[in-house]
Amino acid sequence: MRIRIVDAFTDRPFSGNPAGVLLLDAFPDDHWLQKVAAEVNLSETAFAHPLPAGSAADWALRWFTPVTEVDMCGHATLATAHVLHTTGRASGPVRFAARCGILSATAAEDGSITLDFPTSPLTPIEGPDGLAKALGAEVVGVHATAGHIGDLLVELPDERAVRSLMPDLTALATMSDRGIIATAAAEDPGRGYDFVSRCFFPAVGIGEDPVTGSAHTALAPFWSARFGRDELTGLQGGARTGLVRTALRGERTLMTGTAVTVIEGDLLA
Questions:
Q1: 208: domain CATH number?
Q2: What is the pLDDT of residues 37-78, one digit of tens each?
Q3: What is the widest separation between alpha-carbon atoms in the chain?
Q4: Which InterPro entries does the record associate with it (predicted)?
């Protein structure tokens, strides 16, 4: 059985967000899927198998962190679409049946892939006690996300504050269903991005996720409303970074990026 490690939302190896990808004939039992994800030990490992002709989607898709299954994952979906196209298993738009509904991935001639995901509604809230202390930064505002991600979107004063975060992950794990999206406007949009973000998901076994596609279903409407533009580019990450181009389409968010396969081998267990 072939297993691949793909760096998503980047055009070069050892950047972006790595994901495991396994293409299967059918899903084995959940215990095996979870053990493989724990062995791979990346933010998410994606498992996919083809669906019969006439189905609502082309492939069934699931994602597991090292400790649990998740409802939505952008970078591992991008990685899966990249593997399907580079191995000849797909040639046009690909529809995935996932826990969060039908998702699609469309490849362009330049090698980029655009994901079509549901937009996450946002609700301004006060934020939990101790959030600023846990982050180690001043908090400008907090929004709860709805839909399939269950995060808190936390605006910080500036890009420097986001980049310098060294949060208390144990404290953050108690503050939302999945994690914290810390964000700020770009200091200099001339550098090619409009906003920055970092994501911390200790509640699902992920300290920091380098480039989180699903978080951009909340970041896109947040910053599009702020800037008055539907199409933006976000830079995410701490030690590893990647770019996500977003296009807000009402109840859907388009996210475009590239990916690189860095490891390919045989899973023997």
A1: 3.10.310.10
A2: 999 999 999 999 999 999 999 999 999 999 999 999 999 999
A3: 53
A4: Phenazine_PhzF-like
